[in-house]
Design a protein that fits this description.
The complex is a heterotrimer. By secondary structure, chain A is mostly helical. Chain A has two domains: about 1-45; about 50-275, MetI-like fold (Orthogonal Bundle). Chain A has helices at about 1-40, 45-50, 65-95, 100-115, 115-130, 135-160, 165-170, 175-205, 230-240, 245-275. The radius of gyration of chain A is 24 Å and the shape is globular. The termini of chain A are far apart. In chain B, strand 1 (about 15-25) and strand 2 form a beta hairpin. Chain B has helices at about 55-60, 90-95, 115-120, 130-145, 150, 165-175, 195-205, 220-225, 245-250, 255-260; strands at about 15-25, 30-40, 45, 70-80, 80-85, 100, 180-185, 210-215, 230-235, 235-245. Chain B is globular, with a radius of gyration of 18 Å. The two termini of chain B are about 25 Å apart. Chain B has ten helices and ten strands. Chain B is an alpha/beta fold. Chain C is mainly alpha-helical. Chain C has a domain at about 90-285 and about 315-325: MetI-like (MetI-like fold, Orthogonal Bundle), CATH 1.10.3720. Chain C has eleven helices and two strands; from the N terminus they run H-H-E-E-H-H-H-H-H-H-H-H-H. In chain C, helix 1 (about 30-65) packs across helix 11 (about 290-325). Chain C is flat, with a radius of gyration of 28 Å. Classes of the chains: A mainly alpha, B alpha/beta, C mainly alpha. Chains A and C meet through helix 1, helix 3, helix 4, helix 5 and helix 6 of A and helix 1, helix 3, helix 4, helix 5 and helix 6 of C.
Chain lengths: ~280, ~260, ~325
């Protein structure tokens, strides 16, 4: 009887511990969000979005250049990551077990596991060193390379969810294969692929390491692709490690903006998935 | 083995013929040396126990078989005398002349009812019918499939909102819209309730006024009801092909008799 | 298409097919399509090859000059042209190890909570909050680390270990506690690795068949005994795979670590001493590197990091794949 009681007590204790684990695991997020709001919100005036960074000692100032820079970098990355990722995903979904497909699938996972700083030094070696200057393009390409495996993976998964009967129906109507892929399969899988693309964008939007030696950052207004460009994460980093209180405040406000951007994209991604294709896809 | 056409049909020319047609998955042969004629404006039923290769045979007739991994064919299939497996023949062109409807309804879920019917037209590029002409084709295809009255007020709604039977007739309309020479039906009523199945059967009867119909079915009553000729397939071999009445009342092969009297299958 | 099939559909029997004259097709579309998607797919191996070659070539001068001492020597002296990456390699491994020690039990607990225990209405929100940890940018973790985590560890956690638990005399907690430290890096990495580990663990736990659970319960096991003796063993290699995947993330993490580890190329037994990691070494020195040898040495650090993550991720994938294909009984 006492053995049973001991076992029951152990049961309650261990199950209780998992509750503790759940609380502990959600605490950091709540802390981070709380601190971001507490320290960032007061600096977050409309000026922050429209003004340029100010030198030390001058109050106010904003990150308009960094916000625009981040958007430009995301655009370049998407212009590279989306077509390559979707194309490669189509290939993998069509070839499935082929030797080349297996290799590409494996290497795509390898690329996904690569530390982002390694992509940064790679992009520097190819796109900065030969030209002698940092550039938005180099940063965008580094981020685009990060997106490729993410988009490839979700594209393949989503296409595999499209029932094969739809592919057959299109082929039997006299659709060429490319047309079948574009107007039937890709279109049916689109909500899932949009989700994957948004998740990938959310992930690269806050990346800093690949930009350190490529986009480099810029205190001035620049939207030129072959010049260094400002980016929110770079600006946050520079301000965070500076010794000035005024800049620390700016860093918190920048971080708040960055996280809001990332959260909006993440929520949009969830919403896109909810609109998954209907009942014919069984 | 070439199945001789009965005397009264000798004058009519078959629109689709196979000679020594075999189909393989990798090295295993699932259809063996089938030679059979399909007449214009007739319904030909292909029956046989499951796994006998009847669906594969059907898929050889519009070159769908080869879309599966490792699938190959030998022999010839002639459509109005033109070999569809000749080196110059394009499978896409073949499939536009030989339409197909599958066991489960396959409406394109992202398209409206109208766009589903027009799906085969849109890919014609510059030659694609537009505007009122396209509207006309959609309407006639739907009328032909007996679906027009049911859907004419909701052509822009999603096709997956239709019932299973309606979806299947929509797929038939979609196949008809590109005006095929032959239409292949692969167990088209297997996933439908009896009432919907009956409507499709009635539709099959209508279709043969204009084109050749080949229907694969595991339901012998259905074959007896809708077809003019029936072919019996067993383990990839064509055992017997004859006018439906003859095949069901006086089969010439003991295996056919065994099957239709329910001794196996 | 030889005859425009659909264009003259206005007269006569609508669906009546006319005799087929030609089956010739002129569709180069499929060939183009195949070439295009194959080309996109080939970009992935090409990119990886390019990365490996570029970094390998750039790293070669430093690696050949230093030889094996590149990874064994602790002397990283830019002025003297001496490049020993041992402190950075040590720091990378130790900070990641701390992260796993902290994150694994927590992630396992959350995953068990979410897959076995939590009431239905609580699962979605808690899973969402934990998953959201993975969406927070590294630089935001770093910012939070500098201004909240590091002071909190220094002012509350370290005194607790030293004074309350009397661990101040052990090597692990010796020396002055300035704040930025190996411990801070480990803690922040633990938070960052947590969502990855718990997501994989949750997935493999959910994949454990109902029959395993029923069998344990039928033997009179308590719920916890069922989880611990039936569910966890069944999912073990998948869980280990998830942990190693988290390790892969931690090893390559750059910004957050750079901001809280203190960036000093020394090996110290104390968790309170500053340290360095390979990624933060590159991040800090790369733009300031002027000599070719220094640049090459940083590239070599990148190459070592590349190889380590390659091995770690390979292991993780193999383990997850093994559990996905079912346990060999």
């Amino acid at each position: 009887m006492s053995a049973l009681r001991r076992r029951k007590a152990g049961n309650v204790f261990m199950l209780g511990l998992t509750y503790v684990a759940a609380v502990l695991a959600t605490l950091p997020l709540l802390f981070i969000l709380f601190h971001l709001l507490q320290k960032g919100a007061s600096t977050l005036t409309p000026d922050f979005f429209t003004n340029m960074p100010r030198p030390v000692g001058e109050a106010g100032g904003g990150m308009s250049n960094a916000i625009v820079g981040t958007l430009i970098l995301i655009a370049i990355a998407a212009a590279i990551g989306l077509p390559v990722g979707i194309g490669a995903g189509l290939y993998l979904a069509e070839k499935r077990g082929g030797a080349l497909a297996m290799t590409v699938r494996y290497l795509s996972d390898v690329l996904n596991g690569l530390p982002s700083i390694v992509l940064g030094i790679f992009a520097w070696q190819f796109l900065v060193r030969p030209f002698g200057n940092f550039s938005a393009l180099a940063g965008g390409i580094a981020l685009g390379a990060m997106m490729i495996p993410l988009v490839t993976r979700t594209t393949e998964e989503m296409i595999r969810l499209v029932p094969n009967s739809l592919r057959e129906a299109a082929l039997a109507l006299g659709y060429p294969r490319w047309r079948t892929s574009m107007s039937v399969i890709l279109r049916t899988a689109l909500p899932g692929i949009v989700t994957g693309a948004l998740v990938a964008v959310a992930r690269i939007a806050g990346e800093t390491a690949p930009l350190l030696f490529t986009a480099f950052g810029n205190q001035f207004w620049s939207t030129t692709l072959d010049e260094p460009i400002a980016a929110l994460p770079l600006q946050i980093f520079a301000y965070a490690i500076s010794p000035y209180d005024e800049w620390h405040k700016q860093a918190w406000a920048g971080a708040l903006v960055l996280i809001v951007i990332v959260l909006i994209i993440s929520l949009a991604a969830r919403h896109a998935t909810r609109a998954r294709f209907g009942s014919a896809a069984d | 083995m070439v199945i001789k056409a009965p005397q009264e049909e000798a004058a009519r020319e078959p629109c689709l013929t196979t000679r020594e047609l075999s189909a393989y998955f990798g090295r295993s042969r699932v259809v063996s040396n089938v030679s059979i004629d399909f007449q214009d404006r007739e319904v030909t039923a292909i029956i046989g126990p499951s796994g006998c290769g009847k669906s594969t045979l059907l898929r050889c007739l519009n070159r769908m078989h080869e879309t599966l991994p490792g699938a190959t064919t030998t022999g010839t299939v002639r459509l109005d005398g033109t070999d569809i497996y000749a080196p110059g023949a394009d499978p896409i062109a073949v499939r536009r002349h030989v339409g197909m409807v599958f066991q489960r309804p396959t409406p394109f879920p992202t398209m409206s009812i109208r766009d589903n019917v027009a799906a085969g037209l849109k890919i014609l590029g510059r030659g694609a019918p537009r505007g009122r002409e396209a509207e006309g084709i959609v309407e006639r295809a739907l009328r032909h499939a007996g679906l027009w009255e049911e859907v004419k007020d909701r052509l822009d709604e999603s096709a997956i909102a239709l019932s299973g039977g309606q979806q299947q007739r929509l797929c038939i309309a979609r196949a008809l819209a590109i005006r095929p020479r032959v239409i292949l039906l692969d167990e088209p009523t297997a996933s439908l309730d009896p009432l919907s199945a009956q409507k499709v059967e009635e539709l099959v009867y209508q279709l043969k006024q204009d084109i050749a119909v080949v229907i694969v079915t595991h339901n012998m009553q259905q074959a007896a009801r809708v077809s003019d000729r029936t072919a019996f397939l067993l383990m990839g071999d064509l055992v017997e092909a004859a006018p439906t009445n003859t095949l069901f009342t006086a089969p010439s092969d003991p295996r056919t008799e065994a099957y239709i009297t329910g001794r196996f299958g | 298409m030889g005859d425009a099939i659909a264009s003259s559909g206005t007269s006569g029997g609508f669906a009546r097919g006319r005799r087929v004259a030609s089956l010739a097709g002129a569709a180069p579309g499929d060939r183009v399509y195949r070439v295009v998607i194959t080309a996109f797919a080939l970009m992935i191996p090409a990119l990886l090859l390019l990365i490996a070659v570029a970094i390998g070539v750039a790293a070669w001068p430093a690696l050949s000059a230093a030889g094996l001492s590149f990874i064994t020597s602790s002397e990283w002296n830019v002025q003297a042209g001496k490049f020993g990456a041992a402190p950075a390699i040590y720091g990378t491994l130790v900070s990641s190890f701390i992260a796993l020690v902290l994150a694994t039990p927590l992630a396992l607990g959350v995953a068990i909570f979410l897959s076995e225990i939590a009431p239905k209405w609580l699962r979605q929100p808690v899973a969402f909050l934990v998953d959201l940890l993975a969406a927070i940018p590294s630089v935001v973790y770093g910012l939070w680390g500098i201004f909240f985590l590091v002071p909190m560890l220094r002012d509350h956690v370290v005194p607790f270990f030293r004074d309350t638990l009397h661990l101040g005399n052990t090597p692990l907690f010796s020396g002055p506690a300035y704040g930025p430290s190996m411990l801070a890096a480990g803690v922040i990495l633990a938070i960052m690795a947590l969502p990855y580990i718990s997501a994989v663990t949750r997935e493999v736990l959910i994949a454990v068949p109902r029959s395993q659970r029923d069998a344990a319960l039928a033997l009179g096991a308590t719920k916890w005994e069922m989880i611990w003796d039936a569910v966890i063993p069944y999912a073990r290699s998948g869980i280990i795979g998830g942990v190693i995947l988290g390790l892969g993330r931690a090893l390559g993490e750059t910004m957050a670590v750079t901001m809280v580890i203190g960036n000093r190329p020394e090996i110290s037994a104390s968790l309170l001493a500053p340290g360095y990691t390979m990624a933060s070494l590159i991040a800090n020195e790369f733009t300031e590197a002027t000599s070719d040898l220094h640049l090459s040495a940083l590239m070599a650090v990148g190459a070592v990091l590349f190889v380590i993550t390659l091995i770690v991720n390979g292991m993780a994938r193999w383990l997850v794949w093994r559990v996905a294909s079912g346990p060999k009984s």
